[in-house]
Amino acid sequence: MHPSSGPPPPRRRVHAPPQESGGHLLDPPLDAAPDSPGPSIEALVDNNRLLRAAFDTRIGDLKLWELVAATRREVLTVATEYTASYRDVDRPTDVADWIARPMVMGGHQPELFHPGVWLKNFAIDAYARRLGGTAINLVVDTDRCVSTSVGVPVGTPREAHLEQVAFDFPAPEMAWEERGIVDADCFASFGSRADRLLKPLEPDPILRRWWPLVVERAGESHRLGLAIAQARHMLEAKFGLETLELPVSELVRLPTVMVFMGWLLAHAAALHEAYNAALADYRVRHRVRGRARPMPDLVVRFDDTSPDPWMEVPWWIWSRDDPRRRRVFANIGTPGTLILSDMETLRVELPISPDTTPSQWVDALSRMEEHAVRLRPRAILTTLVARMIVADVFVHGVGGAAYDLLTDDIVRRLTGCDPPRHAVVTGTLRLPVDGLFPGFAADDPAGELAALHHQLRDLEFHPERSFVPHDAQSDQVRELIQHKQRWIDTHPTPTLAKRRCREIRAANDRMAFHALPLRTRLLDRAGPLATAVRARKVLRSREYPWCFFSENALKSFLLLEMG
User: Fold this and answer.
1) Strand, coil or helix: what is 292?
2) Cα gap 543→489, rounded to integer Å
3) What is the residue-wise DSSP string for 138-192?
4) Which of 180, 249, 415, 561 has its CA at a distance of 20 to 30 angstroms from the CA of residue 166?
5) Distance of CA 379 to the CA centre of its chain
6) Residues 470, 481: contact at Cβ < 8 Å?
7) Are the C-beta atoms of residues 201 and 436 closer than 8 Å to each other?
């Protein structure tokens, strides 16, 4: 371990999702030539392999490159076996060559995500084809299943709103890997129910034809997230993709990954310190206020069971009997032993320390799995594993790329070396409302509402502007206008300043009575305009599930024409 801050980080790449429907963000671009002055996927892979080769870190009794080679073999083998359990897979006969080829990896939760997220799966396939390598998508089933419903847009451009449609009944929050299906009828009927609501905005969503495949996979996998992920992956095969998939819950069970996890746990104190230091530096660099952003610090606790501190570490823990994800705290007070606890009911003693062997780490973590105690990495550690010991390039979305700046800093602080770089891919696809509603593209209720608010403010502080022409007003109004103007023209001497202000305000208040009909008309317009602004936001959202779109729109968006 290298507890120093390491070399200075490279200049931050700033990314933002495209605003226009159909827009793509790919860094590096798919069409960049290997010898072009700009970035290319080939140059990124070459650079990352050089960065990884520069690591002198030893993981137990292995050099990092030795662990990488062994991990890649295991990942390719298990990902192939997992993918072959539900769709056809071609496995190369020359395994050594297969392992040596470039590996491109991405990942996301097994939920109904938007097309910009799905674009990553097509990008990793395209990158891998260009490199002559393999693309693997991680199904992040270790994240929690927060909701089992999606918002379906319904209504007109002036009154559109979201109607929540459930694809399963609610249940206590738990990780996707533990989440079964609570109500089979609700799950089976989701496709037809959502399709009926969506039809006025998208007459032919792919959802209607695809959801029966999800129901079929649920009967085989018995897991909500895997049913969605496997059915999506089978559709990708029909679209021509050759990617492999692997759930993170399977990744962390691999012996080589357990070695890496054991190494991190053996250095829990250094990891705790590096994690918090990276967060502190991130907040300073990006002028972030608040200790909970971008995520809370790892905390330290004390209790009566040990004189030594309990340091929070970036994992989750739960058991089969209580599948709630809880934070993990580590105690290293006993030589040669690591005690992990959720500070509630779970407490596990493991022979994990810098002085114990990697085989002991693997045995200890394997026994936890056998006893149905799940120790799962948080998002930052998941991508750290993928980037450090598996993939030649990891492909993030915009959000993941921003958060993985923390991962970069943690790697530098723990190893003193610069981590491999990641790619960034996202896109924007919106429902075809412009074609359905003539004038929708040019409509600007937000601009109208802003102008109306300006009018209301002007009516409060400059009501005389609404009485035009002045000579057409009543004598009382003209006198109030003249009275206000005399005080405006009066120089605000120290003795007159306060009275001048009071007189101007009083004149405004009295004129407001005469402007009341106009104010009422403006306020009557404000409500419908605010509703229209919300409706436009609903219809223009880029967050709707990819399955809400037509197959033709998806194929055009997903770069399939690039082969």
Assistant:
1) coil
2) 55
3) EE-TTSEE--SEEEEEES-TTT-EEEEEESS-----EEGGG---S-HHHHHHHHH
4) 249
5) 10
6) yes
7) yes
What distance separates the 2 farthest-apart alpha carbons in the chain?
A: 98
- Secondary structure (3-state) at 16: coil
- CA angle centred on 359, ends 356 and 361, rounded to 5°: 60
Among 71, 404, 83, 124, smallest CA distance to 247 is for 83
Per-residue pLDDT of the chain (563 residues; tens, 9 = 90+): 665 554 455 555 678 999 999 999 999 998 876 666 668 999 999 999 999 999 988 998 888 989 999 999 999 999 999 999 999 998 888 989 999 999 999 999 999 999 999 999 999 999 999 999 999 999 999 999 999 999 999 998 888 999 999 999 999 999 999 999 999 999 999 999 999 999 999 999 999 999 999 999 999 999 999 999 999 999 999 999 999 999 999 999 999 999 999 999 999 999 999 999 999 999 999 898 888 888 999 999 998 888 899 999 999 999 999 999 999 999 999 999 999 999 999 999 999 999 999 999 999 999 999 999 999 999 999 999 999 999 999 999 998 888 889 999 999 999 999 999 999 999 999 999 988 888 888 889 999 999 999 999 999 999 988 887 877 788 898 899 899 899 999 988 988 899 999 999 999 999 999 989 999 999 999 999 999 999 999 999 999 999 999 999 999 999 775 44
Please name the residues in contact with 304: beta carbons below 8 A apart, sequence gap of 6 or more.
none
Residue type, 392: D
3-state helix, strand, coil in the chain (%, to 5): 50, 15, 35
CA-based nearest residue to 533, from 428, 453, 444: 444
Name the token pair of 17: 């999702």
Asked if residue 59 lies in contact with residue 259, where contact means CB atoms within 8 angstroms, the answer is yes
Backbone angles phi, psi at 42, to 5 degrees: -65, -45
174: phi then psi, degrees, rounded to nearest 5: -155, 170
d(CA 384, CA 388): 6
- The residues, any chain, with a CB within 8 Å of residue 53's CB and separated by 6 or more, are 65
- Total number of residues shown for the chain: 563
Residue 68's CB is within 10 A of a number of other CB atoms, namely 24
- Residue 226: is it exposed, middle or buried by C-beta count within 10 angstroms (0-12/13-18/19+)? buried
Buried b (16+ CB within 10 A) or exposed e, 114-147: bbbbbbbbbbbbbbbbbbebbbbbbbbbbbebee
All structural domains of the chain with their residue ranges:
445-539
- Amino acid sitting at position 535: A
Q: Residue 162 is which amino acid?
A: L
Q: How many CA atoms lie within 13 A of 193 on its CB side?
A: 15
How many whole angstroms from its chain centre is CA 90?
A: 31
CA separation for the pair 71, 276 (Å, rounded) = 28
Dihedral (Cα; 499, 503, 506, 511), 10-degree rounding? -170
